[in-house]
Design goal:
This protein is mainly beta and 503 residues long. It has 4 helices and 39 strands. Strands 2-39-1-38-37 form a 5-stranded mixed beta sheet, with no helix packed on it. Strands 3, 4, 5, 6 and 7 form a 5-stranded antiparallel beta sheet that branches. A hairpin with a 3-residue loop joins strand 10 (120-128) and strand 11.
Length: 503
């Protein structure tokens, strides 16, 4: 079943559509036609979107320009719509997987990976409100073996870029802090030891401390999940904390042999079994660019199975609370877990969060609202195939049941995203096969009525996937999905959905 999903995700070249959905009218009908918002040529992929505090948004994406993929940015102005996209990269090779975040003043930073077959760098481009995009700068150490870039801001205008970097054959987790009025401070490795670390996810808590959660190889217990915390008051990194509960002590040779077998299976589950197209040398070749994204028909999907499926999710609430969501191997299956942090209790014991009736879990994503309620969505294999599940956390009731929320049927559904509004509405989007094509779907949860029936987002029979969703401060929601015809070039479109009468 795992191999089947890989082939499904790599069958077609897709293009991206953006839907601006008011929270209370997420599935309202509209007569509007999709409006192109990309650069208007060749293939465009993988949009990442962030809102500023005024309700404007910034979209960054890859688009083929000449012989290379370039990173573009397009701004959505509240009440006016999308503006003209501009190139924001360093113009020195293929650029991939851009991410973007805003500070509270309306300035933004985008990070992306760019280079050629022998060397890649992690770049950061800054958008200054009223001045536009500035020249990108390198934020890694220059080894050429980098990936996994993410960017976050705190409430004071400081930012952190996190990424993986290989040095002397070992992959480590690095952070480069941007301090307002002082600029980039230089990359620092935050994991410890001589084993590899992967999939970093950052978040600032409400007190300005930075948390980074990532996987770390452990020769006794497999791929553990660790958290590193930067104490902004002390201006130093705490010692990394392991937040998974696998065995630590090897008491005899039989136990050591068993744990090494589990460790081997653990790594294979994350690196080989779920990525048969790439082979055993996948990691080094993705890092070095020897096997570029364009080797396959769906370049935007090359690392979707490898990176998006296993990167942890991290949310921060009030009073310094943080919750991490991740998958890990339990000796038999990949299971979904959550671990909670609070300043007074530190990291608490991990809790299994996926369905007790399911099997392997992947693509775990989470959201939190101002009330501290949380929603988590994930793909999990069942007897009928890969299905999208959701769970919701309320302070008074704790965690609800894991429920399948996708469209009825036996076709695989995967790669969900989620937002949670301050009105306790949950909106999840995902990809799902129907007949001979992939479609994009959404479902909404409302207090008092529960989950609605899943609804198809795309209006025609074109292939769609890569669904992403973001929430604005005014309650607006941007849903991102990729769509394209079998023989047509990829394009980016935007469409607004009207409010029903009476709203």
């Amino acid at each position: 079943m795992k191999n089947q999903t890989v082939s499904l995700m790599a069958r077609v070249i897709l293009l991206t559509v953006l839907l601006l959905l008011p929270i209370q009218t997420a599935f309202a009908s509209t007569n509007q036609d999709p409006v192109p918002m990309d650069a208007g040529h060749k293939d465009a992929y993988r949009v990442n979107i962030a809102f500023d505090n005024a309700g404007n948004a910034m979209a960054v994406f890859e688009q083929k320009t000449g012989d290379a993929f370039r990173v573009y940015a397009n701004q959505y102005i509240k009440g006016m719509g999308w503006r003209k996209p501009v190139i924001i990269d360093a113009n020195n090779g293929n650029a991939y997987r851009a991410k973007v975040a805003f500070d509270k003043e309306g300035n933004a930073i985008s990070v992306f990976k760019q280079g050629n077959e022998t060397k890649f760098n992690i770049y950061a481009s800054m958008y200054i409100k009223g001045m536009g995009w500035q020249k990108p700068v390198v934020v890694d150490n220059g080894t050429g073996l980098v990936d996994g870039q993410e960017i976050v801001f705190d409430d004071s205008g400081n930012a952190a870029a996190v990424f993986e970097e290989q040095n002397k054959g070992v992959s480590g987790i690095y952070v480069n802090m941007y301090i307002q009025d002082r600029g980039w401070q230089g990359p620092v490795r935050i994991d410890r030891g001589k084993t590899n670390a992967y999939f970093p996810t950052p978040v600032f808590d409400s007190r300005g401390n930075l948390f980074v959660v990532y996987y770390k190889e452990d020769q006794s217990s497999g791929l553990d999940v660790y958290a590193s915390r930067y104490d902004t008051g002390k201006r130093k990194w705490d010692r990394p904390v392991r937040i998974t509960n696998g065995p630590r002590n090897i008491k005899n040779k039989d136990q050591e042999k068993k744990m090494r077998e589990v460790w081997t299976l653990d790594r294979r589950a994350l690196i080989e079994l779920y990525n048969p197209l790439l082979g055993n040398d996948m990691k080094s070749k993705i890092y070095s660019g020897i096997r570029p994204y364009t080797d396959f028909k769906a370049p935007s999907k090359l690392d979707a199975r490898y990176r998006d499926a296993y990167t942890p999710a991290l949310v921060a609430g009030k009073n310094g609370d943080v919750a991490a969501f991740f998958v890990r191997w339990d000796g038999e299956h990949l299971r979904g877990y959550t671990a909670a942090y609070s300043p007074d209790k530190w990291w608490q014991k991990e809790r299994r969060i996926d369905s007790e009736d399911g099997y392997d879990t992947e693509h775990i994503k989470a959201a939190i609202n101002a009330k501290g309620e949380m929603a988590v969505v994930f793909g999990q294999w069942t007897k009928k195939g890969l299905r999208v599940h959701a769970r919701i956390y309320w302070h008074e009731r704790g965690w609800g049941e894991a429920k399948i929320i996708d469209a009825a049927g036996e076709e695989p559904s995967y790669n969900p995203s989620v937002v949670l509004t301050d009105d306790s509405e949950v909106i999840s989007v995902w990809c799902q096969w129907e007949k001979h094509a992939v479609a994009s779907f959404a479902n909404i949860y409302k207090e008092g009525s529960g989950w609605d029936r899943a609804k198809r987002l795309n209006k025609d029979d074109a292939e769609t996937c890569g669904v992403r969703i973001a929430k604005g401060p005014d309650g607006s929601v941007i849903t991102i999905f990729e769509q394209g015809g079998k023989d047509s070039p990829s394009r980016l479109f935007a469409v607004g959905l009207g409010r029903p009468s009476g709203n």
